[in-house]
């Protein structure tokens, strides 16, 4: 899972104008994904949705099916990472903890930028819409909380005596901004124990944490912790021997 996600994430961060961009409003960073337009369906006088047999209409229907499938796939990838047994095992190498933090953040970012019709509205819904337990938004939020907890835990576990603190002060400064949010909102809410934030708590957390997490992902990539294809293939080969 990680190799494909990281390869796409590395490409996306280096070609942001084609996938997403980072827009700044003061210190706050917001995700500004590209808009995907879908041709509107034909409608009958009764309002039923029908697609004509024209190539354009057929293409619109195919696009819709592909987007629905992609949404399920990205949610599954997000939940697979959040429920993986290895997530509770701390990498021995502190640098690997930063690499894994980057890969986990990319899982969240790629899920949020999955192909869909109304990306901007989807991001708003992810932050503040009511969501019943078991719904896609609820499940995505729960997985995001789990991965955010893991990212913060992994980076915070790196001893202050490690040279990484001196070499990458910006990464640990961003961690310092996340820790109070973790303690306030996440410390007592582990989705693996069946706990969740209520809507007000989730919205308050995500509104404040999202820009910091995006900055952290960008900074990890800039400072060499976004693994490329060759590095992942090497690690996969070592893991399988």
Q: Quick gist of this model?
A:
With 241 residues, the protein is mainly alpha-helical. 63% of the residues lie in helices and 7% in strands. The protein is globular.
Would you kindly provide a written description of the structure presented here, covering whatever features stand out?
This protein is mainly alpha-helical. The chain has one domain. 63% of the residues lie in helices and 7% in strands. The chain contains nine helices and four strands; from the N terminus they run αββββαααααααα. The protein has helices at 2-14, 55-83, 94-112, 119-128, 136-156, 163-167, 169-186, 199-222, 229-240; strands at residues 20-25, 28-33, 42-43, 49-50. A two-stranded antiparallel sheet has the order 1-2. Strands 3-4 form a two-stranded antiparallel ribbon. α2 (55-83) runs antiparallel to α3 (94-112), α3 (94-112) crosses α8 and α5 (136-156) crosses α7 (169-186). The radius of gyration is 19 Å and the shape is globular. The chain starts with a helix and ends with a helix.
